Amino acid sequence: MSETVNNKKEVRVWIDGCYDMVHFGHANALRQAKALGDKLIVGIHNDAEITKHKGPPVFTQEERYKMVKGIKWVDEVVEDAPYVTTLETLDDYQCDYCVHGDDITTTVDGYDTYHLVKAANRYKEIQRTQGVSTTDLVGRMLLMTRNHFQQGESEYSVGKDENWLDITNQAKPSKLGQDHAARSPWTGCSQFLPTTQKINQFSNGKPAEPGDKIVYVAGAFDLFHIGHLDFLEKAKEQGDFLIVGLHTDHVVNQYKGGNYPIMNLHERVLSVLACKYVNEVVIGAPYEVTKDLLEHFKVDVVCHGRTKISEQHGDPYEIPKQMGLFKIIDSGNDMTTEKIVQRIIINRLDYEKRNSKKEEKELALFEAMQRTTKVAEKCG
């Protein structure tokens, strides 16, 4: 089935999905899948298939294809992958087996999308990343709350159902409660708990080599999207080793306002680390790029995109400009986090319906599984 490399059979792993609003949960699934073999082939469903079975995606299929290609554990991407994984698909791409998380994925008719490969014993399961899902992120944007970057004793609390603000800033009751009891077991909005192990798993741990040209960029990189990916690709072309400085939630909120950042610092760190162009991340980087920072990391060039630089407290790039290290680069992509939020707000009813439908279906399946387990225990 797979080719032989150096007298050893190459294990090719298949994993598929929607990969909408690609986040660190997706990246972690891809990391786990890659660890089960030598090559990772990722199948991505097109917009029509996703709309049919789940509801409209936030990112277009072209955006989703490119985003997944930018994740460092991915070897190949298969576009327009079928929603139900078949044995023919695995054979066509010389894959030994299919991998998926321990959450349930069903068709519009309620069938397990992996029933064929499971029956053929060509299926392996990995652990789903708790605390994040596309449903969760859409909910955060619709709710327009700040619960996701609480600090202190409230840092790990989970918000109850709240009002949301419409485009006229009028409070409206929400159907998207963030408490775990109000959601399905898989897409409930539970708080992500960061660990050093998770960061180590995402980091390649390799320092810059002597003589490498060091590139530094900084920002929020909130809801990591295609605009970020294209910018980081261009930034990496300016040197050999790319360092990304991530601002704290408090700093991002100061210059962006509202409920930004949508993703908290811990989540943004993993999202950026998963990008194949990134070598290192500075967690909680200073808003002003200081001389100490430049000297510490031996930075040769500091890059910024075409987006407006907030100068509420002065020009954050004043020192690298004085040192002749600053460079504006054009990624050719004008996507911003704000534009993604607008997609959600404009289509609020569609996405709220999609979220509710998905959660109701998953909850019903979960309850059915629990009933089956109880019956089996009694019979045993």
Beta-strand content bin: 15-25%
> What's the count of strands?
14
Rg over C-alpha atoms, rounded to the nearest angstrom:
22 Å
Percent helix, as a range, is 25-40%
Largest sheet: 5 strands, parallel
Keywords summarizing the entry:
five-stranded parallel beta sheet, single chain, 14 helices, about 375 residues, alpha/beta
How would the blueprint of this fold be written?
Elements (H helix, E strand, L loop, with lengths): L3 E2 L2 E2 L2 E6 L6 H11 L4 E6 L2 H7 L7 H9 L6 E4 L7 H6 L4 E5 L13 H5 L3 E4 L7 H10 L19 E3 L5 E3 L22 H7 L11 E6 L6 H11 L4 E6 L2 H8 L8 H9 L6 E4 L7 H6 L4 E4 L13 H5 L3 E3 L8 H10 L1 H32 L1
Parallel strand pairs: 3-4, 3-6, 4-5, 6-7, 10-11, 10-13, 11-12, 13-14
Antiparallel strand pairs: 1-2, 8-9
Describe the model:
The radius of gyration is 22 Å and the shape is globular. Strands 5-4-3-6-7 form a five-stranded parallel sheet. Strands 12-11-10-13-14 form a five-stranded parallel sheet. The protein has 380 residues and is an alpha/beta fold. A hairpin with a 2-residue loop joins strand 1 and strand 2. The protein has 14 helices and 14 strands.
